[in-house]
Design a protein that fits this description.
This protein is an all-alpha fold. The chain has one domain. The chain is 94% helix and 0% strand. The model has no long low-confidence stretch (mean pLDDT 92).
Length: 54
């Protein structure tokens, strides 16, 4: 193989690793928001249930 072909393969590997890191970061961010929304909705429902029992 030529040097440019090998360089392209290495560049493509680096790009793939960077894309994977971005996807992981995005997934963590989405998961954090999902947990926050569930906690807020749960808190609201708990409060409404508690007030209904009073």
């Amino acid at each position: 193989m030529t040097d440019s072909s090998e360089a392209n393969k290495e560049r493509n590997r680096e790009i793939a690793q960077n894309e994977e890191a971005k996807q992981v970061t995005g997934s963590i961010r989405v998961s954090t928001w999902a947990v926050a929304v569930v906690v807020i909705i749960g808190g609201i429902l708990f409060t409404l249930g508690w007030l209904a029992l009073k």
